[in-house]
TrEMBL record, chains A, B, C, D:
The lineage of its organism: Bacteria, Pseudomonadati, Pseudomonadota, Alphaproteobacteria, Sphingomonadales. It comes from Sphingomonas morindae. Residues 2-313 form the Enoyl reductase (ER) domain. InterPro entries: ADH-like_C, ADH-like_N, ER, GroES-like_sf, NAD(P)-bd_dom_sf, Zinc_ADH-like. This is NAD(P)-dependent alcohol dehydrogenase. It comes from the Bacteria.
Amino acid sequence: MPVPGRGELLIRIAAVALNYRDKMVIETGRGLPLAFPFTPGSDFAGTIVAHGSDSDRFSVGDRVIPHFTPEWIDGRRPGDARTPAYRTLGGFYPGVLAEYVVLPDSWLVKAPTTLSDAEAATLPVAGLTAWFALVERAGVRAGDTVLIPSTGGVALFGLQIAKAHGAQVIVWSEGDMLDKARAIGADHCLDRDRADLREAVYAITGDRGVDHVLEVVGGGHLARSVELVAVGGHICQIGALDGFDLSAPAMPLMLKDVTIHGIGTGHRTALERLVRAVDQTGLKPVIDSRYGLAELPAALDRLDRGPFGKIIVEFG
Amino acid sequence: MPVPGRGELLIRIAAVALNYRDKMVIETGRGLPLAFPFTPGSDFAGTIVAHGSDSDRFSVGDRVIPHFTPEWIDGRRPGDARTPAYRTLGGFYPGVLAEYVVLPDSWLVKAPTTLSDAEAATLPVAGLTAWFALVERAGVRAGDTVLIPSTGGVALFGLQIAKAHGAQVIVWSEGDMLDKARAIGADHCLDRDRADLREAVYAITGDRGVDHVLEVVGGGHLARSVELVAVGGHICQIGALDGFDLSAPAMPLMLKDVTIHGIGTGHRTALERLVRAVDQTGLKPVIDSRYGLAELPAALDRLDRGPFGKIIVEFG
Amino acid sequence: MPVPGRGELLIRIAAVALNYRDKMVIETGRGLPLAFPFTPGSDFAGTIVAHGSDSDRFSVGDRVIPHFTPEWIDGRRPGDARTPAYRTLGGFYPGVLAEYVVLPDSWLVKAPTTLSDAEAATLPVAGLTAWFALVERAGVRAGDTVLIPSTGGVALFGLQIAKAHGAQVIVWSEGDMLDKARAIGADHCLDRDRADLREAVYAITGDRGVDHVLEVVGGGHLARSVELVAVGGHICQIGALDGFDLSAPAMPLMLKDVTIHGIGTGHRTALERLVRAVDQTGLKPVIDSRYGLAELPAALDRLDRGPFGKIIVEFG
Amino acid sequence: MPVPGRGELLIRIAAVALNYRDKMVIETGRGLPLAFPFTPGSDFAGTIVAHGSDSDRFSVGDRVIPHFTPEWIDGRRPGDARTPAYRTLGGFYPGVLAEYVVLPDSWLVKAPTTLSDAEAATLPVAGLTAWFALVERAGVRAGDTVLIPSTGGVALFGLQIAKAHGAQVIVWSEGDMLDKARAIGADHCLDRDRADLREAVYAITGDRGVDHVLEVVGGGHLARSVELVAVGGHICQIGALDGFDLSAPAMPLMLKDVTIHGIGTGHRTALERLVRAVDQTGLKPVIDSRYGLAELPAALDRLDRGPFGKIIVEFG
């Protein structure tokens, strides 16, 4: 068992939440300068079992979750134009799919008291990304309309966070995902293959358009977001399922006074605020399925087959 | 001579500043529902010579300039997702290339006291667009670096407004435009055909990148802006010289926490603030050339030949 | 029955909500330059029964509520340092305690579809003030803690609006008001006479303090708000029950990076957003009691005796 | 000579700028839990002469200045409602009036290249406080009017920073301080004993009032700031020369939509931005007088006699 050094903590992992990114790191390395043997995984909940000297933010027995971009504490993100910040847990830094990890205490925050370990493990990547986009950047508020064109991990958190702030949520998806989204609070669930999606959104909003889009699709889909967003609205560019080359028309962007926010998770202070919001509102992250560590291959397979909610690997 | 009705003012035009848009409206109508005979032109400075009843914002003798999007007084812009606001002076509404015009008094603001009529006429479109982008949306401040990849009308105002706030300005252009830009305050003037533009900008900013880009080029150029912008930086999408289909890579946008602002001029309160800023800082708009009304064809031709500053039509 | 002129609407009043200010205007005139006979009252809900020419924002049959500061549409409030804006409905302008009123159409917004007339009538003053403070100025979000040291009209809206955004609410009051506040969602209800109020708030927030205070008490109470507010927190200065001379210690204000917002209702765009929020979240304004027009003296008396919620005068 | 440990740097001090606070700490301790022997002083410029392991933000030979509140890197300030952050250099932490100091590398930023050591030493407290107030909180911009009712250290930086952003500055002071303020750029210098100060400010601003007040006087002076500030204006509460018990009238605060910002210096990212602004704009801090270390008593005396600019203690 590793020993925590100065400013470090030894944590016993209870649950790890998988992200599609973990699968990509495992399969391709994503071009990152990894040190082998490499441990994947970014999202966990665990309990502190020992601490090194000069570590006073936590006590033995505290339940914690990690911060995915550990150097981004608050305010401006580290990095520069030549080298954007890329040092993440389970990417540049070794990951957390392990029974024990040692981490600097500045890399952690307390887990919500109202969530199980499996639930808490889902917050650091998917939860924080949706929170940072909608709350800290786009400023969602009661009565706003939020368009979420997906039912992936960030999308479902976006749905729940928007509802917790009193917003109206429109989800685009397909098949039984629509019913599942409705069951957790979506106000309007539209089949993404409808020919009249645009008119449907205009009808729901009385032509006003949507105040916020969680743009998790990317590629040419940004054009659609620009078309549907309200005057003065916000588009949070979060994902690139359809490709990393974004395209959109200039005129509606300019005439509608639209703001596009590039989102790459968020800072630690925001994660602490998300934890408080979860405890206050009773928000329960959606879990698709749970696996033991020995079932990791099956868990990774499940990532490809359109889960509704997060996939959890549980430890003893 | 027209007679002002209730809430209206009769204005004698002294100078009109041309915009490339005027040429397009004259040549193609731009698809707008114009009533003929149509008077083009949006930017003027003039003097109030008579007022109708219920018009108390101005007095006879006041020098005024118009507000290009007259219904956008402050705060949120009018319009909705289906029909963005398109009602502009010299577009939907009849324009101002005339000796006298009658306008509602809510469509006007007082001209700066420190500018000539020709200079004041340049503010409503080019001046306000640069001001609204850099000051009201992007929040430029002393010590910031601003990239301006052009020497067009909005670009030159951007340069002067950025300098008035203590920022460092990098201009991209070509030929003798570079010297002219330097003469009015640009800190760094780079030939747009240099193969090492990216490295040059990284070198100037110590790899930090630029805090703001005035993106007046559009099309695929947005990709370059995303590449050069600093972490936490702002890109103001203003123009589309290279095309109305924007494209850009998703990853640096997301990893660098970048904000893109769609800009389509600005509101009347911002124009009033620009007027105060001009009077306070002594900013003098750049004028390329002056013509009489009879020389309008020559003036419009000049628009195509790369003027450095605004082209003015002066009235008797 | 009055006839609407150009740009005006004739409205049949259904319900008027009283404010303590109405009583003061009736009794003292509050130093305002009133024209007699003067009609008091600011808050109503009614139905449009006729419209003059050039009035196209509404149709006959639309249910509407008024905007209390009619010249403040959006953005910056009118007025200057010498003469702050004071032109309000039922103050400078004639009021609405009448069966029919004629108003300019720019002074109105559509009533929420989910509220009765009596409920809708409560929004323009008390509802908008709480909304503008917490949402548009202080930016309340899920997980924040809001301190509301009263159970007056603005206070109860503050409570409901904070809850609609997922915040935790602490109310200070006395007697059975505490139970009533709990019944509509307050998380913590503290007797204002407790000697240990400060410690109680520190305990609830884990010493963090409260993110927002709705300061409706005024006078020396601001000192207490400064003491209890969190680092980086917001105090909305709204009311002056304890006096118009505010006092507070400088050191905690400075060391805790606190922001104080002076709040005097809000603009029309914000009222439109409040209406959407009410319809989306199902927020129901609290009504204390209802009276007929003939019972106006009793209704005004009731204002003095600590109502819990708004007092309504209903019209046939 | 002390030896730098892990993450620490050894710095040779070149110049220390005195603050009135230093005098108070020396004379009274200010109630801080000081460890004796205690070294006072917070502001310096110096050169790195050695570094410990794990310290890579700086190299030997770099000129640096310290950050006064070392734990406040960016975003939200540390501390809570019960215990606001009070750990400052030369207060809770030992100070810098010494030939050599050892400090953690996270407590430092690079000095501006365009300033001498004496000039650079003035930035961390007085410079950062004025910058954080006007630029990061109040958002000063060209054409704004800033009222600065003093010629103290923070006040003069406020004057220079406002001018660097194109603002108009009104200074209140007395005697030859008025001429000195004019010489460094103040647009209007008013004797603080004039009976018509209010009317003078209204006249300068055309009744609009001032957009920003650097409230360094405190006590009952806040009432005057509230009276003179424009609708939508900002008051930065910074100092308390006239007392720590602030008082102000509620009505104009509320009717004018005023924001009061409690200011207690600023974070390290802001100090880095100030350094860039100084290098870009050529701002030169005002130095009143220079002393050797042996003359410290005379230097402290000078603090009491109304210096114009900062007092510097120079080392070898």
